[in-house]
């Protein structure tokens, strides 16, 4: 199991609609419209994103600065993801 799977399990248990991951900031869950920080360290720029992404797609993201994809965590749910670059580094939102 990838370390990022724990965030999706937490997302599911908290009834969160989104998971926001931004370099230099702890992950946040969107619960009933409000962003709530997760008790976790600040993220490195691509620390957890690469775990989910096939190598060719991650290379595409590094080259273009943007990636849309979907994946499924068996028994938990299917997620849409958008990876993007911003001023502080890489970021992603999962819905």
Describe this structure as you would to a colleague.
The chain has a 6-stranded antiparallel beta sheet with strand order 3-2-1-6-5-4, with helices on one face. It has helices at residues 5-14, 49-52, 55-64, and strands at residues 18-22, 28-31, 34-37, 66-73, 77-86, 89-94. The chain contains 3 helices and 6 strands. A hairpin with a 2-residue loop joins strand 2 (28-31) and strand 3 (34-37). The mean pLDDT is 89.
Quickly list its features.
single chain, 95 residues, alpha+beta, Beta-Lactamase, six-stranded antiparallel beta sheet, 3 helices, 6 strands, 25% helix, globular
Explain briefly what this protein structure is.
This protein has 95 residues and is an alpha+beta fold. It has one domain (5-94): 2-Layer Sandwich (Beta-Lactamase), CATH 3.30.450.90.
């Amino acid at each position: 199991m990838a370390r990022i799977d724990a965030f999706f399990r937490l997302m599911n248990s908290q009834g969160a609609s989104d998971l926001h991951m931004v370099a230099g900031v702890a992950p946040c869950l969107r619960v009933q419209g409000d962003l709530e920080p997760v008790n976790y360290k600040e993220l490195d720029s691509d620390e957890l994103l690469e775990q989910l992404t096939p190598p060719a797609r991650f290379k595409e993201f590094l080259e273009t600065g943007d990636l849309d994809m979907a994946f499924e965590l068996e028994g938990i749910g299917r997620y849409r993801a958008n990876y993007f670059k911003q001023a502080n580094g890489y970021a992603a939102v999962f819905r």
